[in-house]
Specification:
Blueprint: E1 9-14, E2 21-26, E3 30-35, H1 36-48, H2 53-63, E4 70-73, H3 78-88, E5 93-96, E6 102-104, E7 109-114, H4 129-135, E8 143-149, E9 155-163
Helix pairs in contact: 1-2
Length: about 160
């Protein structure tokens, strides 16, 4: 369900006329751009307030001062979850590789993966639905997640964010 073609590479660069470094994240169908400060703020919160070690690993190379373009190798897919949070907060622009257009995060359409965005949002109309969570004795594993499409309907990113 993970739509990432380049799940381990972040690229930081200076855009013309923009003194702040930009963090670039690529999937199979999209190129996401984030202001470095927005990324640092979100990752610092995850690292410091929630003690998430993967966030600390990501934070070190992003926080290094300098304006030189560089590629950062991330050894896990954790950054994709941060991407979803930044998009939800409206802190991104994205180029859809299929339609060739650039969109702001606020223009993207949210999508659900599997049984929904959260185990508490399970759609009772789908096979397994809410009744199966509480009434079946033999429980099968469920999963769900979220993602985003461009306004033209092309899937840009999706992640499984929970499993039972």
């Amino acid at each position: 369900m993970n739509e990432m073609a380049h799940p381990t590479t972040l690229h930081t660069e200076n855009l013309i006329g923009n003194p702040m470094r930009t963090v670039i994240f690529k999937t199979e169908n999209a190129v996401f751009q984030f202001d470095r400060k927005d990324v640092e703020t979100r990752v610092e919160k995850l690292a410091n307030e929630y003690g998430i070690n993967e966030a600390r690993t990501i934070l070190k190379p992003i926080s290094v001062p300098g304006d030189e373009p560089k590629t950062i190798q991330v050894k896990n897919n954790y950054f994709a979850y941060i991407v979803l949070d930044l998009i939800a907060a409206g802190k991104s622009s994205v180029t859809c590789e299929i339609c060739g257009k650039m969109y702001e995060a606020t223009q993207l359409r949210p999508i659900s993966v599997g049984h929904g965005k959260s185990p508490f949002d399970v759609n009772p109309g789908t096979k397994g639905g809410i009744k199966s969570l509480f009434y079946k004795k033999k429980q099968t594993a469920m999963f769900g997640g979220k993602g985003y499409k461009c306004p033209a309907g092309h899937k840009l990113i999706s992640m499984i964010t929970w499993r039972t």
